[in-house]
Design brief:
Strand order of the largest sheet: 11-12-10-9-8-13-6-14-17-16
CATH class of the largest domain: Alpha Beta
CATH topology of the largest domain: Dihydrofolate Reductase, subunit A
CATH architecture of the largest domain: 3-Layer(aba) Sandwich
Bound molecules: ligand AOF, zinc ion
Number of strands: 17
Largest sheet: 10 strands, mixed
CATH superfamily of the largest domain: Dihydrofolate Reductase, subunit A
């Protein structure tokens, strides 16, 4: 790892501290380096609040005033004039909830900026870098670019592909069954894995299930086993077979029902009509994009998961396998195509595989 990569790695670490608090904004981290020493650090902490660069420069100024950093003997402005600002995402060029970071960098006379990756947000999209270059700032881009993009995979997918980032999740037995035959709910994964699933739910903007899962399990799809916000619930109920007594409709939380028959709001439940014949998941993703939903966790059942796989409308799959459990008869797990494995983890008897769609 060279020095640029070393500092960018720190930017990514800092950015992650904003996880769960900044969406739908990206997670962004920044460090200020003077004569090979970090003299300031910052990250985007909360949606609507200052960006990483602003917090980093403020931190540098505070530390400078306390005499804590290298260069403290010189005026702060003079130190800035010899510093390099590292940031995991291109500095913004627009007036959003906060003023443009590119303008701030120029005003502070920072001569060099190192950027992890370009910002795909239409109002920025290269304009931040252009602004800096036009003002004579030396800009280096693409340092740890893949890692910086992966950090904000939801934000990038949403703005570049105009659809939410889709995570598939299912639990299966060692012989690849996801449920026993009959209406009974089958518990396959262990308590710890269930808690992990609630963490996963808290990380996505929405969670989606099909009609059969809503009928068989009557789930509430909340994050009650993990601190964090509840995602919006999406249910595919083409023929409106679900009775109004399901928890999804009675607990006051927001639910969107994708169906062939009607459109409109009924209390916390909103109906979105889709066209029979066209690929179902692609239609749902198009609607979700227009609703500003940046990511979806698809929790089943087998039919909906298989539709996502068949339509190639997914990005990541997380499969929990109870390695000690077998079911003689039951519903088969979806068929996963060849994928790129990102991670495997063992939690008790459960093995958790995370993989990515090959594009
Ligand atoms: C940066 N640094 O730390 C972040 C950036 O509404 P606003 O003003 O918060 O702007 C949100 C947009 O700004 C967001 O969509 C993304 O393009 C960029 N986020 N930019 O320079 C940061 N979080
Ligand atoms: Zn900004």
């Amino acid at each position: 790892m060279n020095l640029d990569e070393h500092y960018m790695h720190r930017c990514i670490e800092l950015a992650r501290l904003g996880a769960g608090s900044v969406a739908p904004n990206p997670m962004v981290g920044s460090v200020l380096v003077y004569e090979n020493a970090v003299i300031g650090e910052g990250y985007h902490r909360r949606y609507g609040q200052p960006h990483a660069e602003v917090n980093c420069l403020q931190d540098a100024e505070d530390r400078h005033q306390k005499g804590m950093t290298k260069g403290a003997a010189y005026p702060f402005r003079q130190v800035l004039q010899k510093s390099t600002l590292y940031v995991s995402l291109e500095p913004c060029a627009h007036y959003g909830k906060t003023p443009p970071c590119a303008d701030l960098i120029i005003r502070k006379e920072i001569p060099a900026v190192v950027v992890g990756c370009r910002d795909p947000f239409p109002q920025v999209d290269g304009k931040g870098i252009e602004k800096l270059v036009a003002a004579g700032v030396q800009v280096k881009t693409g340092i740890l670019e893949q890692a910086c993009k992966q950090l904000n995979k939801r934000f990038f997918t949403f703005h570049l592909l105009h659809r939410p980032f889709v995570v598939l999740k299912w639990a299966q037995t060692a012989n690849r069954k996801i449920a026993a035959t009959g209406d009974e709910r089958t518990l396959i994964s262990h308590e710890l894995s269930n808690r992990l699933v609630h963490k996963w739910r808290s990380e996505e903007a929405a969670i989606m299930i099909g009609t059969n899962t809503a009928l068989a399990d009557n789930p509430s799809l909340t994050t009650r086993l993990w601190p964090g916000k509840n995602p919006v619930r999406l249910v595919l109920d083409k023929q409106l077979r679900l009775p109004g007594t399901r928890r999804l409709f009675t607990d006051g939380g927001k639910t969107i029902v994708f169906n062939y028959h009607k459109q409109g709001e009924e209390g916390a439940v909103s109906y979105h009509q889709i066209a029979p014949g066209d690929p179902v998941v692609k239609q749902i993703l198009a609607s979700a994009y227009h609703l500003g939903i940046q990511s979806i966790l698809v929790e089943g059942g087998a039919a909906l998961l298989q539709s996502c796989l068949d339509e190639q409308a997914w990005d990541e799959a997380r499969i929990i396998t109870n390695t000690k459990m077998q079911l003689a008869a039951g519903l088969d797990a979806p068929l996963l195509p060849v994928t790129e494995i990102l991670d495997t983890e063992q939690l008790g008897d459960d093995r958790i595989l995370t993989c990515r769609r090959m594009v």
